[in-house]
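Long-time lurker. I teach an intro course on protein structure, and each term I like to show students one example going from raw sequence to a predicted 3D structure in token notation. This year I'd like something fresh instead of my usual example. Would anyone be willing to generate the tokens for the chain below so I can use it in lecture? Attribution to the forum is fine with me.
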Amino acid sequence: MKSLLFIASLLAASTVCAATASPVTYHEAAPAPATAGEREIAALFDRWNAALATGHSSEVAKLYAPDGVLQPTVSNKIRATPEEITDYFDHFLALKPHGTINYRQIRLLGDNSAFDSGAYTFDVVKNGKPAKVRARYTYIYKKIDGDWKIVNHHSSAMPEFAKDE
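-- Reply from a regular --
Happy to contribute to a lecture. Here you go:
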């Protein structure tokens, strides 16, 4: 019984500490990757971000593999077909998003696959006013017919907000 009370008190203390700790935020742009392979993968986000800037959902959607999956930030619906991915970007692009990588980890999984995971911030226009959307992300890439494609893209808003957000 004493051990259960001890464990319960540890859990309560950790909950209080977690509730009072300042959330981790990422504001700066991530440093450039060190290796050529990592720079190649980092450039894929730049390509994706440039496709967003065109304002054309079809330009963004063509960066995804035909069987690619998008788990988006600002929609609960998981998109698993090119048509669904295009539909998501039809709506997301209305926010005029521009992304900045704030923190990243790139892993090369061989010559034809890699992932890029971290935190990014989107500058958007919401209700006519500039706003920021901070999120965590993971892109999984696969080289298909010599071209890197997104096979999975997961993005989720940061669950904790700093007081200056």
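Some talking points for your students: Residues 3-19 have pLDDT under 50 and may be disordered. The longest strand covers residues 129-144.
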